[in-house]
Amino acid sequence: MRKPEANAIALCPVCRKPMRPTSEKCPHCGAERHYGPRLLESAVCAFAGMVLLSAVSTLILPISLWTIMFAAIGLVAGFLFSHNRFSGDRWLQ
Asked: Model pTM?
């Protein structure tokens, strides 16, 4: 690979080696710029929200239609939490 010009050098946030500032992938370590949550992060947060809110509703009320409604609200809340928590760009290996 050709070395970048001196005025167009940025350092990779993972391996700290020079790369172009517009790159989406580091040629040295393979780290990629990623925007927003990954599928696994969204799924884990949504599942955790669904389980937690349905467990709380079961503690308050016996299992009923309210439990299903609380589970659905928890699913949406967990999904929105993951988008809030992992928003922005990150460099992932």
From this structure: 0.72
